[in-house]
Amino acid sequence: FVHTQFSPKTPLDASDTIINSNDYTQNVCRKCIFPKPARAHHCSVCSRCILNLDHHCPWINNCVGHLNHRYFFQFCFFLTIGSFYAASFGFSEFQHYLFGRKAFSYLDLVTGRRINEIDILPDVTSPSVSYTFLFLFIVALTACIVLVGFTLWHIWLISRAETTIDFHTNASERKRLKKLKQKFINPYDLGLGLNWKMFLGVNRWYEIFYKNCLPSSHRPFCNGINWPRRNPIYSFEDEQKSKLMHV
């Protein structure tokens, strides 16, 4: 969570790189009146342009962009695991609330009679404690469901080398080119493996264990200005020619 508070990096932070760069379209932000590199967008909440902006998150009170997107994803991923772990503590109380405690009694092999938690731990199963764990289960399960959906959404975006803003921009561009009988390809999509390596900042997969699973402040490979690209547009005829060449 602490790393999500890092600055996502603005064009002003990389002004020297922008001036010397020829790898982006020369756009100027109408609000900042400053050169805006490719994939940079203006945040209306922070009133500044952010490199590779995904969105402004109110929960961390910060923009999610080039330098802290990985930390934000890790934050959501581990928070999902934590909420699931917290929900597991109240699952038994949820079962008892729905079906009653007698439905979950246990057979004592020594005495041959059925007992439940009240007979074993009367203090722990008091009404106040039971309602506390029941409330914990409901809150944690709700958070877990929301976080699972949000984390899966970002996994899908990262696999396609897109941000939330890129997703909507590319969708509209894809529709426009389809009418012209052309196919749009995300110019920054380098393939599933390379997309994840660039996002996580690793050269080899085993580096994930000590660069991402453990606290690490290593920077992404890209500087947020110069992005490796592929050919973004080609016609349906080019696609058919490409298929014939590989037959």
UniProtKB/TrEMBL annotation:
Pfam families: DHHC (PF01529)
UniProtKB keywords: Acyltransferase, Membrane, Transferase, Transmembrane, Transmembrane helix
Annotated TM spans: 71-91, 131-153
Any one annotated GO CC term: membrane
UniProt keyword annotation of Cell inner membrane present: no
Compartmental location: Membrane
Palmitoyltransferase DHHC domain sequence ranges: 25-169
GO MF entry, a single one: protein-cysteine S-palmitoyltransferase activity
Catalysed reaction, written as an equation: L-cysteinyl-[protein] + hexadecanoyl-CoA = S-hexadecanoyl-L-cysteinyl-[protein] + CoA
Membrane topology: Multi-pass membrane protein
EC annotation from Swiss-Prot or TrEMBL: 2.3.1.225
Record note on domains: The DHHC domain is required for palmitoyltransferase activity.
Family: Belongs to the DHHC palmitoyltransferase family.
Protein name in UniProt: Palmitoyltransferase
Organism: Rotaria socialis
